[in-house]
Amino acid sequence: MMLSLVWLEEALDDLEAIIDFMEVQNPAAAQRTGQAIRDTAAQLPQHPYMHRTGRVPGTREALVTPNYRIGIDSIEILAVKHTRQQYP
Question: What CATH number is associated with residue 44?
């Protein structure tokens, strides 16, 4: 059974804020980054363990994609952070 992908509202807000911030300096890079994050997240249902164990217990982290948690029947996108942002 393939897991469903669930974006938490906070993660969607994070993604939008990062793209908005980047668009001021480089709109094309902002769009590429947003698409790369969405593409990476879209791969999670087929490969939920492809990224490293997260710093927050029970999570996993992808370098280009949001932090996520694997559940029984879904994968939840918890947050999206720019590399310059403090996490967790």
Answer: 3.30.2310.20
